[in-house]
Amino acid sequence: MGNHDIQKVAIVGAGIFGLSLAISLCKRGHNVTVFDQHQYDKTGYQPSDDNPQLVASVDHNKIFRASYGTKLHYQRLALESREAWIAINKELRDADDGADDLFVPCGMLRVQPTASLSLLEQETLANMTRDGLRDTQFVEGSSEDRERAAERGWTEKLLEFPIPDDSDRRSFEAVLDSLAGFTRCHRGCAYFHSVAEKAGVVFRFGPQQGCFDSLIEEQVNGGKRAVGLRTKDGQAHDADVVVIAAGSFSTQLLPDLSYHLESSAGSVATFKIDKADAQLWDKYSPEKFPVITWKSAPRGKDGRDTGSVYVLPRTPEGFVKIGYRGVKFTNFRPAPDGTPFTQDGKWSIPLPPSEFQSLPSFSADAIREFVAIFLPEFKDVPFYSTKLCWYTDSLDNSFLIDYVPTYADKSVFVCSGGSGHGAKFMPVLGEHAADVFENGDASTTPMRPFWRWREDVPRRNGLQEGPDGPRNIGEKTV
């Protein structure tokens, strides 16, 4: 069967990657069914008792940025996506004057670890300059940039933060990115679910009829080919191609991915502002407050980031979300027999729901340090909530979107590996992934070389650490 023939496609996962790909494949004429154990309603992707607010697709908001250092391909993909989000905002407002934007261009203040620009920031500004976008970036220490920020109405968000205990009374250098902001992720999923239904995508939701149980395989020429999947209710669903787009659960559904992907957890805490507190409500609104990111320490000699913390403006419900990404924690548990790749017989998987509401003390302390500097009103306020949010890390932070070569006849496709930065691409990711789905190495997307199956790439990005690494909180008291 040629790649351009109409195919029956079963996609496992109705999150960011699965929804985006489903829409694009359906629009190209394929017969697409999406399976997911959870539900959607008008407000978004709904967590169950077994998975309360566990993954990115159900989160209130996610940072939108096009700042990628030397990774020009992701910068350009993000800007392509930004245009699409703005068009969606207009569509929603045209239909309803009171509709909330799904992308909020509130700006992002990239606060440096010192009073100078980091090498990564210099690389980002160089790429912005290369693409003619330098005027969208405002360096706090540049009088020219501050003047331009005033002319364009961004001065209020070009915030200044003194470096604690600095004998010279310097402030952290910072760059305000006027292209950035955040997406309302769970509402975005609800929107794209509606788009998918209108396009003709069929959905099977629920802990039985929507929950993946196993691939249905047949032997061919000494290998194996997937011919469908079975759900927890025992029903068989035939398909020409099965797509695994299950985020941090992808390796558990398809252990063949275990070399390429690993589940890891970022730490998230919230405060809640009472609307009656008019001063705080106004100060932390998207109209007045940018996304703020801070690297509390420069990157190490190995290039690893150990100090990233961020905060987003308050939500309409009053939640202020702070996230710590400097260390993403792993949870190593014994892997099933026959798993193609393990480390000492173990692999990292999401913690059980009963265990991921508490934060490791290391990350809680990092968030508290950030709060003391950047959110002084909350310095002594207890967290409203905490949780670990599970990501799907790849070997190199690039997504894994390709056919799985351990299955014959291009019968299994993977669309995963968001590595904590996939949500922003939701409007455009599916078209690029569908190009790979139909055309493989002949696809025209510039993302093809970065998203390919890459078993020849060493395990990096922390995936090399294994169960003895410092990030592992598996089978330990959090």
Structure report:
Helices cover 24% and strands 25% of the residues. By secondary structure, it is of the alpha+beta class. Helix 1 (16-27) packs across helix 9 (426-439) and helix 2 (72-95) packs across helix 9 (426-439). The longest helix has 24 residues, at 72-95. The protein starts with 7 loop residues before the first strand and ends in a 27-residue tail after the last helix. Residues 459-478 are annotated as: Disordered. Its cofactor is FAD. This is FAD dependent oxidoreductase domain-containing protein. It comes from Purpureocillium takamizusanense.
What is this structure, in a nutshell?
With 478 residues, the chain is α+β, with helices and mostly antiparallel strands. Helix content is 24%, strand content 25%. This is FAD dependent oxidoreductase domain-containing protein.
Spell out the key features of this protein.
flavin adenine dinucleotide binding; six-stranded mixed sheet; 10 helices; flavoprotein; FAD/NAD-bd_sf; 478 residues; alpha+beta; 25% strand; globular
Work out the strand percent: 25-35%
Averaging pLDDT over every residue, what do you get?
92
Ranges with pLDDT <50 over ≥5 residues?
Answer: 47-54
Shape: globular
Approximate helicity band: 10-25%
Please specify the SSE layout and strand pairing.
Layout: E1 8-12, H1 16-27, E2 31-36, E3 39-41, E4 44-46, E5 62-64, H2 72-95, E6 103-104, E7 108-111, H3 119-130, E8 137-139, H4 143-151, E9 174-177, E10 181-183, H5 185-199, E11 202-205, E12 212-220, E13 223-231, E14 236-238, E15 241-244, H6 250-253, E16 262-272, H7 278-283, E17 291-295, E18 308-311, E19 319-329, E20 332-334, E21 346-348, H8 361-374, E22 385-393, E23 400-403, E24 412-416, H9 426-439, H10 448-451
Parallel strand pairs: 1-2, 1-15, 2-11, 7-17, 15-24
Antiparallel strand pairs: 3-4, 5-10, 6-10, 7-9, 8-9, 12-13, 13-14, 16-19, 16-22, 17-18, 18-19, 20-21, 23-24
